[in-house]
Amino acid sequence: xxxxxxxxxxxxxxxxxxxxxxxxxxxxxxxxxxxxxxxxxxxxxxxxxxxxxxxxxxxxxxxxxxxxxxxxxxxxxxxxxxxxxxxxxxxxxxxxxxxxxxxxxxxxxxxxxxxxxxxxxxxxxxxxxxxxxxxxxxxxxxxxxxxxxxxxxxxxxxxxxxxxxxxxxxxxxxxxxxxxxxxxxxxxxxxxxxxxxxxxxxxxxxxxxxxxxxxxxxxxxxxxxxxxxxxxxxxxxxxxxxxxxxxxxxxxxxxxxxxxxxxxxxxxxxxxxxxxxxxxxxxxxxxxxxxxxxxxxxxxxxxxxxxxxxxxxxxxxxxxxxxxxxxxxxxxxxxxxxxxxxxx
Amino acid sequence: xxxxxxxxxxxxxxxxxxxxxxxxxxxxxxxxxxxxxxxxxxxxxxxxxxxxxxxxxxxxxxxxxxxxxxxxxxxxxxxxxxxxxxxxxxxxxxxxxxxxxxxxxxxxxxxxxxxxxxxxxxxxxxxxxxxxxxxxxxxxxxxxxxxxxxxxxxxxxxxxxxxxxxxxxxxxxxxxxxxxxxxxxxxxxxxxxxxxxxxxxxxxxxxxxxxxxxxxxxxxxxxxxxxxxxxxxxxxxxxxxxxxxxxxxxxxxxxxxxxxxxxxxxxxxxxxxxxxxxxxxxxxxxxxxxxxxxxxxxxxxxxxxxxxxxxxxxxxxxxxxxxxxxxxxxxxxxxxxxxxxxxx
Lengths: 344, 344
Hints:
Two copies of one chain form a homodimer. In chain A, about 25% of the residues lie in helices and about 25% in strands. The first copy, chain A, has helices at about 55, 130-145, 165-170, 185-190, 205-215, 230-235, 265-275, 285-290, 290-305, 320-330; strands at about 5-15, 25-30, 40-50, 80-85, 95-100, 105-110, 115, 150-155, 175-180, 200, 220-225, 240-245, 280, 310-315, 335-340. In chain A, the strands form three sheets. In chain A, strands 3, 4, 5, 6, 7, 14 and 15 form a seven-stranded mixed beta sheet that branches. A six-stranded parallel beta sheet of chain A has the order 10-9-8-11-12-13, with helices on both faces. In chain A, α10 links the parallel β14 (about 310-315) and β15 (about 335-340). The mean pLDDT of chain A is about 95. β13 of chain A pairs antiparallel with β13 of chain B.
């Protein structure tokens, strides 16, 4: 190992955000690279996935996963290579899918790692269309949403890593698919490149009316990964027996208090009753881990056949992770956001 | 037919309620009894079921069923006997389960009727434990709630026609069952007679704290037929992967406007996501009609074995239906509310 690579740079959580996260919530540390003991291996991060759920981990409000502790390395999915190994299942040069977080090097005991072998053509895809976001789209839409041919499926964040895959699978299943995205450029991409039937810009002043016009038969499946004004516009369009897989509520992650009244909780409850709606939250690996293999096989086939298209937004350098993450929460990225931490 | 029975008394909807229904919303009419033509039969109502959903039918807000029109007979489930028949499937004296509404006589073409034969031991049960309310409890709990032995099930309106059956089935399935009811007498009945593990009075000032204390392992299934303050107290106790069959929101039926803020709709959405909750509305005969036979067989067995107990609140005379109905919406009845319209 040369002098230049003897140190590991990593972002730790310096403080908890109040509302939108800011640069001061992160601290870039430089520490010595540890050496693997027997049963351990050392990983060098090539790609780090940035995803909206990370906002939740920065808070200590009760959630589905433990929060990152102050001073701990920020969590995140990674594609890495083995630098050195004293673990029987890994050897130097192996590609590894893991959860090593916002850092250049990581020591591991092999737990939770997936060995991808020595050859890997498109490593970053394992963080996007062939990884957690694609898997989330696949199971949430097919298992909870259960779209039937001819039904109308609405997908928020339609140009994003999850939404883009949701809509394309729904098209493969014969549905009418309407996307919601932020800005004209994203909407054009969603219709022209991804093949959705329509895409509505949620920033447009007539957004709710435009969404209604794009869904003349109402909405049978609403794949929720946004919340906020998009859900507000969806509510009156929901059909009897509509299904709502709840995968995320990015519009609400930075909220410091509830919106002003009236309290619409009883309204939602009455709606669920009157229209016999199913609304179900899910956390992809907690709920569906055993079906990852099935997903990967099907999605690799669709991708290779050109039936599922995707876009990556790759940012170079770990030091740019915080700014890229802030942009993600504001909808500024275009495609799956990945940090290229190290060069292949 | 004697002079006394030549007229049919019936309640029609005179006007739509604003908030709580009042006597003026109903009009008692006396009209001639019609004669059945070929293919028709004349029914005499013995028992009329009064149920909370009827409040919804009085309004013309969008709902899962068409509203009763002004001047139309109020709808409702009935057990009747055939007075005269020109229909091949029915003969004079047959007992019939139907949906003939708030009236003493009804003409029918046989559609939607269930012929119960000439002998029927406990006709009013077909409107309660062996009818729509029991069926609602059975399918909502077992199909949507899917209770597992050892889990905690909370049931609102626990002494009512639906809630009492939900809790007893959950006990048969090995669950810890906590009821919520209005008043000490109902709570005593729920624990001592029905065998729930606990029952909390929702009128008690420390209701939320008492409910929490009664659910030390949290809540896995909440059978929702109330809404309002009961649901508010349930929310913080819901476990990961909790299931909420939504069968009714009686606390909200008379509301004329939404409660004051803050708007907790985003809160509920976040909760569904974080805890991976399934919340699902259902309308019993629309969703489960083909399984009525399975239900009836199982429930008759449980009732005959004394495993499911029930209580009826029988009020004599059609003319008392409006007052009894107002009491039902205020939780004044104790047991399944049935009007004895005619004598056997």
